[in-house]
Structures
1.
Amino acid sequence: MITLDHYLYLSAILFFIGVFGVLFRRNLIVILMSIELMLNAVNLSFIAFSRYTASMDGHVFAFFVMAVAAAEAGIGLAILVMLFRNRRTVQADDLTLMRD
Amino acid sequence: MANVESLRYFLPELLLTALVLAVFLVDLGLKRKKVPIATLMVVGLLVSLYAVLKTPGAEGVTLFLGMVSLDPFSVFFKVIFIVTAVLVTLFSMESDEVEEKNFGEYMGFIAATTLGAVLLASSNHMLMAFLTLELVSVPCYVLAGYISRSRRSSEASLKYVIFGAASSGLMVYGISLLFGVTGSLSFEGIRDALSAGNPGEIIVLISLIFILAGLGYKIAVFPFHMWCPDVYEGAPTPITAFLSVGPKAAGFAVLVRMLHVAFSSSDGAAAYLTDISSVDWPFLVAIISAATMTIGNLLAINQSNIKRLLAYSSIAHAGYLLMGVVALSQLGTQALLFYFVVYLLMNLGAFLVVLNFRSQTRSEQIGDYTGLAWRSPIGAFVAVSMAIFLFSLTGIPPFGGFIGKVYLFASIIQGERFIWLAIVAIANSVISLYYYARIIKVMFLRGIDAEDLGGFVSSPTTITLLTILAVGTAVSGIFWGPIARWVSHSASLFFG
Amino acid sequence: MLAASKYAPVVLLFVIALAIPVLMIGIATIVGPRRLGVKKKVPFECGTEPIGDTRKRFSVRFFLVALLFIVFDVEAVFIFPWAVLFRQLGLFGFIEMAVFLFILILGLVYVWKKGALEWE
């Protein structure tokens, strides 16, 4: 029997895999993908809660999170392409022009 | 209030939406576009400012089935955002970094950020807060990277988008947990659920930390401030000025509303609020506030790039401003609003000087400001106005920043719980004097025989704007009565 | 007190969620042998030796098309529920969706005029 808890465990695991990806991966495209994973984990948790509490709010929120995730991915990739044209790199370690 | 009835209270936002679309479309048809598009922006913004001031129901209604609330608090912030956008539009005309080529997109994104900020200040529901926070953030990512051939600008923009997207992911996860334990997404619904019983304090604490991460990133507080110096340094100067006032004020507006409506309840007289969430968030925010102002000020000391120095200074100011949130009282909110009025004048003024200096000398190094006061009469004028802005940022009388800080300290001391925070803040003001005074020293006391550097000129628009901002900064420190009345009106009904 | 709380499982959830990525990365680094060699870099069990570089550069134009596709595609998320409830939402819903689509079309016009849809 799959209960609310199972969905929450899955969502939390996915979310933290995403967080670890953002913190420890060095390729900027993989970092953007990890952020998408975080947002999709959030969607899962919203939908699980929404079904559990029989309210539509969580479903609606998940729709908007999807739209926002698409916008962020679009902007992120566009900026990445611009950075690649200027710098010929997609590695986070190479972003060192500005330092204290 | 239902959807169709709400529309007539929503006129300013509809006008701003039309402005965003119009600016993007006008860009398609024109070759020489700077002047017509800037004119369209200023006219459109002023029309919506008029609409904000004339909209009925400003004593407090909720629109669109409780998604948006219209009250004096949101009206106050709408005025701040629109005025900032007008000034930044004029700054952009003066800047040599803003090209003609994509000017419509540039202005369109400023208008879109303003629309997002206006909605963010009035959002009364987690969905609305999340969406409008994104509407503020996403155009800013693009604006930070607007100089497409600059390597610094694109690096700044990419750092901004990665930090921003990750922290909005944290925030929305916090919202989902809060939705799980309270079963509601509207601020009032969350408050009712929290005060009715105790729905799992650990989950509330975790979700609150995640939500604070998302908002803390937007207002650049410790430990979410790392993007700020890089983005401020890499972005075009008018955009740096914009980011340091507009989105920061928007983040504070929603932070105050969220913490004071969803996580607090007010007593009968509504002068004080009590924390109802059983997780003691005021203490958490007080710690963040003290850490933010200390880190910001200490790291500012060694900066040689003036935009980077002002970035750390704006981090420190976010720390001071959080004192108004921690105070949990009407006086605290008033102090916060008052400080924003003054902060708008002095911070935009300081950035206008940086912009003017950059367009003359192509330099952002503090060392190059040597002898600015002695280079030409206009150089002297610019140096004097810069000194006014910097003294006011330090909080020295008789400038507006001093009155703003007095209000913030008073609200903390009146709250009695966080007296130590006021002491930390005073110590920090002393530290900040050191690095602000360094710039003033370089401009006035060095290079007295600096004629060989060449004269320093400013356009008439720059001189006019500088005069307005400098006089505003000085006058707000002497005749602060009208501003104090305006903010007390804006904060008092907010709790009603 | 905490153990008796009905939210103890959710606390456990966080511990497990943090532990799993730590374990996955940690065990892989500790246990995994690190013997790199020419044989190891050859594709696994797939018959012929590879010819040329698999990491072929794609033209940046594909990126642009993909971006535009994502942005316009995701809007279907809002159109679909509206279409399902078309009769209940009535005229007001219709006008709202018309405004939404109008703004989307303006976006399309903008992209078109800017030349982002041209392949050359």
2.
Amino acid sequence: MAQTRTTASGARDGAEARIGSAARVRGRIQGDGNLVIEGHVEGNVTLRGDLTIAEGATVTSEAVAAHAVVIAGSLEGNVAATGPVRLAASARVRGDLQGSAVVLEDGARFSGKLDSEFDLPPELGGASQGEARGRASDAKSARR
Amino acid sequence: MASTVIGAGITIEGEIATDEDIVIAGTVRGKLSAKESVTIEHGATVEADVTGGSLVVGGALTGNVTAQERVDLQSGARVIGNVKAARVTIADGAQFKGSVDMDV
């Protein structure tokens, strides 16, 4: 449930940066803070904070990079998150998802690859690799 | 609360268009158009041509401005560009370089 809490606080803090439902942005968006997209965005999004793609929003992007990412709208593009990625029931996503955890809710429509960082059990031989990636992600969060 | 807010930490390079109002506290480069009010807050940087219903500038703006109703440059604003609107105010303490066209 940790992901759900991240989501809620992300949406609240993100009120400082919001692209409303009547707005259309074509270009590159980057920033330190959180962002909520309710409208239409075409272009890459790079954030150090959390990104919320609200229900009804459409995002077309080659690359979306952020900390925690919540998608309830429609996204065409790849997501690289340093935190968790959550696809709500209303989400429609075509692209690859990468994050510390990936949650697909019942009803979410998704086509693409999933890459989630977690420790593989030792019997699968992934322990050392899993640890190395865990440290890499700690380093990222320490920088924030 | 404006429907679209570009927060202080956010930079957009490209085109923003909205049928509602917009508040910018961050950085926008490119083109900006809104049907309703555009607010460029103190500390914001906008390098773009701006069209809107009305415009309030407290920050730095480089670009040409066209507003349906009015343009208000507040104290602390720094504007380089041409302004076209029926009503224009420039407050004491605002820096402005460019022309004003009130369509008279």
